[in-house]
Amino acid sequence: MGVSTLSLLFDAHIHLTDNEYSSYIEQVIANLRAMKIVACSVTVDTQTVLRSFSLFNSQRDIVKQFVGIHPEAAAREELDKFKEIFRSNLQSIDGVGEIGLDGTYEVPYDRQKQVFGEMLALAESANKPVSIHSRKALDDILEILPSFKINGVLLHWFAGSKKQLARSMDMGIYVSYGPALVYSEDKQAILKNTDKGRFLVETDGPVRYSRCFENLSAVSSGFLVSVVASAARTLDMSFEETAELLQKNSEAYLAGA
Length: 257
Ligand SMILES: [Zn+2]
Description:
The structure is a single chain. The chain is an alpha/beta fold. The chain is 41% helix and 14% strand. The chain has helices at 25-35, 46-56, 79-88, 109-126, 138-144, 162-170, 185-192, 220-235, 239-254; strands at residues 9-14, 37-41, 63-67, 95-100, 130-133, 153-155, 174-177, 199-201. It has an eight-stranded parallel β-sheet with strand order 1-2-3-4-5-6-7-8. Strand 4, helix 4 and strand 5 (130-133) form a beta-alpha-beta unit. The chain is globular and about 50 Å long. The structure holds zinc ion.
């Protein structure tokens, strides 16, 4: 037939259950479909997990559901209730996230570590990939991860040093880059040092980026193509080659490879 197939694009980390999107979530989904974008939709607490199931259980082809307790919510969430919901909805769950540690939050660090450990244990037991928040806590996270057997580990919004990147690559971890790639030479330099088979792209919507896209709330359909184009330019590859590579990486990550 000679019909060429465009690669699917993957937004490796976005908060589609955020209130920011609630008044136009149907439009957001329609746009993902129109642009052939698969979204890894992360949650932050029990409430957003339940919202995710009700919004997206029927959209699993383009919305991959990640469930987790974010470090910011670690103090207030009930672990037992969360685990019960996790176990009774396993068939709807594609991954565990957003989970992690954050050295800048007031939430007690010991409690963050306890919740993070429980989330990693759930991912290990259910054999699901994880999406990790690691702001000012990357060394601790790299220390904790080897205690768990998890396939498909993503350090989302990777902001580590070259040394931490090298260590992550040695551990077979995926890292993702977002809209900062469009303007930040530091990010472009770190991408150049990343194994080609280990990077993904994301928007972290609804985060707003003051230095690009007019400070609008991020949506995959509006921002992701620019991020892929920046990655392509940085790596001296064509857009289509980059999209193909990212599709392969994203599918491997989701499959827990
Ligand atoms: Zn996030």
